[in-house]
């Protein structure tokens, strides 16, 4: 318990404390640490356990509720949602780079180099520019312990200008964009996401083990440097029954 408190209260962390608390509680919920869904700790208990304010606890719980992991009822406390209520899908927040990295830590991307290739026309159309040259292509499945079937098929393409760095990327060592930063010395300053419901192509269906043209959630991401140059572009296809995207929206005023 003391180790957990130390983790949450660690000084110098760039991550908001409520996010650290949410990550810790998410891991406990998904590991089955609370077999009785009604025995989830109260706000007061969490404040004492982690040495944080009630505001921090409430923000963390709000994140977990957005993900569909818990339900909060006034007067009756917090109840853990059963997997069946979540549709058996992974409810994942991907609203910022920190949450994308957490998603990567909570799962494994088993990718392999596919050689060099022209950027697919649909990607070139999306970024609105001529995508000349041959890009380094990686393809792989993202899997999560305890979940049957992969949660995504991802194709990633590295800009031709990053030839030296791309050729040194090691499969399954770290996220591709973190390896790009380390190997090239270029920092990724912005990530854009385009989310669309699409039917599974023959290739996607075969890799994910789903019927052809079954519904998938496609997340198309562009990783850009400070000048706006695209360093990496990736497309992840998630089976509709295995993944749900969540995000946090703050109400102003």
UniProtKB/TrEMBL annotation:
Keywords: DNA-binding, Transcription, Transcription regulation
Database matches in PROSITE patterns: HTH_GNTR
GO process terms (BP): negative regulation of DNA-templated transcription
HTH gntR-type domain span: 15-83
Protein name per its UniProtKB record: DNA-binding GntR family transcriptional regulator
PANTHER family assigned to the protein according to its UniProt record, in alphabetical order: GNTR-FAMILY TRANSCRIPTIONAL REGULATOR, MANNOSYL-D-GLYCERATE TRANSPORT/METABOLISM SYSTEM REPRESSOR MNGR-RELATED
Keyword Transcription attributed: yes
Gene Ontology MF annotations: DNA binding; DNA-binding transcription factor activity
Entries under InterPro entries matching the protein: Bact_HTH_transcr_reg, Chorismate_lyase_/UTRA_dom_sf, Tscrpt_reg_HTH_GntR, UTRA, WH-like_DNA-bd_sf, WH_DNA-bd_sf
Residues passing through the membrane, by range: none
Keyword Transcription: yes
Gene3D superfamilies referenced in this protein's UniProt entry, alphabetically: Chorismate lyase-like (3.40.1410.10), Winged helix-like DNA-binding domain superfamily/Winged helix DNA-binding domain (1.10.10.10)
């Amino acid at each position: 318990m003391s180790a957990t408190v130390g983790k949450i209260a660690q000084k110098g962390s760039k991550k908001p404390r409520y996010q650290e608390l949410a990550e810790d509680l998410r891991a406990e919920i998904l590991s089955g640490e609370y077999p009785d869904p009604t025995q989830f700790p109260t706000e007061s208990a969490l404040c004492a356990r982690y040495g944080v304010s009630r505001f921090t606890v409430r923000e963390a719980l709000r994140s977990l509720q957005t993900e569909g992991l818990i339900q909060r009822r006034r007067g009756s406390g917090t109840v853990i949602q059963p997997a069946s209520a979540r549709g058996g899908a992974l409810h994942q927040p991907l609203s910022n780079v920190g949450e994308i990295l957490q998603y990567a830590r909570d799962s494994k991307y088993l990718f392999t180099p596919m050689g060099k290739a022209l950027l697919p026309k649909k990607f070139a159309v999306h970024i609105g520019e001529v995508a000349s040259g041959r890009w380094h292509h990686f393809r792989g499945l993202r899997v999560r312990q305890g979940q049957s079937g992969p949660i995504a098929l991802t194709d990633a393409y590295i800009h031709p200008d990053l030839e030296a760095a791309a050729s040194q990327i090691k499969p399954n060592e770290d996220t591709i964009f973190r390896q790009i930063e380390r190997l090239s010395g270029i920092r990724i300053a912005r990530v854009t996401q385009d989310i669309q419901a699409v039917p599974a192509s023959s290739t996607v269906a075969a890799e994910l083990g789903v019927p052809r043209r079954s519904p998938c959630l496609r997340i198309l991401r562009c990783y850009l440097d400070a000048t706006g140059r695209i360093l990496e572009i990736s497309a992840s296809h998630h089976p509709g029954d295995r993944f749900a995207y969540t995000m946090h929206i703050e109400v102003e005023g």
